Amino acid sequence: MRARATLWVTALTVAWCGPAVGAQSVQSSFVTMDDGTRIHYQIVGEGQQVVVVPMALYLTEALTPLADGRRLVFYDPRNRGSSESADLATVSLDRQIEDLDQLREALGIERMALIGWSGLGMELAVYAIRHPERVTRLVQVSPVPPTAAMMTATGDRRSGRVDQAAVAAIDSLAEAGAIDPAEHCRRRRALTQPASFEDPSLAGRVPDPCRYENEWPVHLWPYFDALLGSFGEYDWREEIGKLSIPRLVIHGREDGIPVEGGRAWAAGFPAARFLELSPAGHFPFLEQPAVFFPAVDRFLDGEWPEEAVVLDP
Fold first, then answer.
1. What are the domain boundaries of the chain?
2. The pLDDT value given to residue 22
3. 161 DSSP 8-state letter
4. CA-CA distance, 156 to 188, in Å (whole number)?
5. d(CA 24, CA 72)
């Protein structure tokens, strides 16, 4: 075992609830990392197969249908959602990978399937590269591209769907102290969240992140500066090509993060299949649930979804 402080689960905060999320029981607690930062997690459902999913603040309710017969472990990375805020000097890609592994160890998980959405679609691929013996299957949902150059070239098209003048006006109010950080978050989100959907009317189905102080722009922006600054000029294609772990990549055709980035995670890799959903933006599980959930369910059960395809290099 690597030299590090003993991990412990804060047992006093463990509480078994009734059907708090859908019809599933929920266990909620914290794991303390070796630097003292407490990471919040929720376990939904019961079963032998363990599936770990970062970004609980967005995904616990949305992905709970996958908990039927499985144990889903949702957690918030440090400085996100219900997890504690750490010094930004500790925020990095390497630390994200280490936190996940410490969470796995503290919960007694030997092997697990992973579901990574958005930027975590890339980060969990890096975890699988570094710890392939601990990962059974990987689902990458709306992932950022596998190379920094591709991310720079394609950009994020959501900004073009937003009234930037209105956003700037709200930011100015916050800077002047005319609105508090929580109100700043709520007003900004009302303008920007619909851009993540092909059908903007579905934006209201996303849980409100502004209930967490970590998600207020005053805290979130410095966090992203630290995290993204740690990525460097990354290119994971060679390493991901060496993995034999089955990977299912799911991307909405109308996502602001271009679908070409999702395709690049699967194209030419024998262990990967690609599923393109349309109409769907950055939340394909909310816009195309009738396709998304059967496909992921079948993949987690050990079979390729019929709709998923092999992509040539």
1. 8-154+230-300
2. 54
3. G
4. 17
5. 10
What band does 154 get if pLDDT is binned at 50, 70 and 90?
confident
Q: How far apart are CA 122 and CA 147, in angstroms?
A: 9
Task: Look up the CATH number of domain 8-154+230-300.
Answer: 3.40.50.1820
The band of 156, judged by pLDDT with boundaries at 50, 70 and 90, is confident
Long-range contacts of 22-30 (CB under 8 A, 24+ apart): 22/61, 22/64, 22/65, 22/67, 24/64, 24/67, 30/83
Nearest residue to 13 via CA among 109, 82, 96: 82
pLDDT band, very low/low/confident/very high, at 271 (cuts 50, 70, 90): very high
Helical spans, DSSP H, in 107-247 = 119-130, 148-154, 164-175, 181-192, 217-229, 237-241
Cα dist from 165 to 111, 188, 198, 306, whole Å: 48, 11, 22, 44
What integer is the mean pLDDT of 78-99? 98
Distance CA 250, CA 55 (A): 17
